[in-house]
Design brief:
Helix content: under 10%
Strand content: 35-45%
Oligomer: single chain
Number of helices: 1
Largest sheet: 6 strands, antiparallel
Shape: elongated
């Protein structure tokens, strides 16, 4: 039994007639990247192309470099042979944040340029992460320390210790 999240992929051609694949997911879940996930792309069987998302299976895994923008993640794919000699693609991702799938996520797989295979995860809502992931958080209750010569007027709040 396979416990992976499976997303069917549809092949399309771009303006240069290069084949790419797209899959969509709109479900009331978030994908937690903090423990690490594995993305598996299977394209060898025509009509049965799919993306599988699994939990990271190894403690000391090597993770792929991720380029993060507001509305998308770009992740390079590694090419591997399966036990039958067909190739599949894999990426391991580990970073803080959750991918919110409530409003729709598109997965675009580009494999036409050898050595530059990648997956892009794009949010329909315009923000790939839910919650505060990826946002700068301002600290609360911070004491402001001013540099320079201390005031000696004796009348202002700085001089009075307030």
């Amino acid at each position: 039994m396979n416990n992976n999240l499976i997303i069917p992929l549809e092949g399309r051609h771009d303006d240069d007639e290069k084949l790419f694949y797209i899959g969509r997911l709109t479900v009331p879940i978030s994908i937690d990247l903090s423990a690490g996930i594995t993305l598996l792309v299977f394209l060898s069987e025509s009509g049965d192309e799919e993306l599988q998302i699994a939990l990271n299976d190894k403690e000391n895994a090597t993770f792929n470099r991720v380029t993060k923008k507001r509305d998308r993640l770009k992740i390079p794919l590694d090419v591997r042979p399966d036990k039958y000699g067909a190739q599949f693609y894999i990426a391991k991702v580990h970073m803080n944040g959750n991918i919110r799938c409530h409003e729709g996520i598109a997965f675009m797989i580009f494999t036409s340029r050898k050595g530059s295979e990648e997956i892009q995860i794009i949010a329909d809502s315009g923000n790939i992460f839910s919650g505060s992931a990826g946002k700068r958080v301002k600290p609360h209750d911070v004491e402001v320390i001013r540099r320079g010569k201390p005031c000696t007027c004796g009348l202002c709040k700085r001089c009075m210790g307030m």
